[in-house]
Amino acid sequence: MYASPMWHCFWLWVYWNAPTIQVAAAVVQMVVTIIGVPLLLLTLRANSRAAKAAADSAEAALKSAEILVNSERPWLLVEWEGDLIQGFSFWLRNAGKTPAKVIWLDPLITGQLIAIGSTLPEPPRYGYGFAEGGQLVNARWIAPGGRDQIGLFDSFGVYGKFDGSSTHFEAGLNRLFLYGAIKYADTLTDREHRTHFCYRLGNYQLFLDGPPGYNELT
Fold it and tell me: Which of 23, 69, 137, 190 is the least crowded, having the fewest Cβ atoms under 10 Å away?
């Protein structure tokens, strides 16, 4: 069987025009590459934007969840009541929406006289078990809006417990600070939280005062 003359003519044409055909193929390939690279870059950019959008959405969801938890968790605040003549006391108040489980508190609220011009040591130092992870043997629960007394002071004891330094305190040479810390857990996530408090006595009142770290909520 013989091929037709037209078929022979076609292959002769291909033979004689092979360089031109190769150049044309290269041109076509180059055009495809030129078109394909931008398309590839656009695809990669779109994928990158989609990944960033997904990451942003996940971060936003995490922040929303954290805001929700913080709005529902317990918040323990330390407040005082009474006066510096008859005596005063410190109270824990749960300002949150769920119960707080107190797992550690300073057995003694620390009192320290600091000379004018000086300051409390940093970081604050608390009683045994705070840094070591100690806990109360019997945890104390405080309901939302509930209160629990953690310290009672009579004014004579406060002013007279510093071995004659009360004269310097009354003369304005020293400042008296009372400070402590509480660790507690919430019932939502079982996370551990801390309340640091520090009050300064002055003008028959107590004022929140102290260096960084002495008044802190976590």
Answer: 137
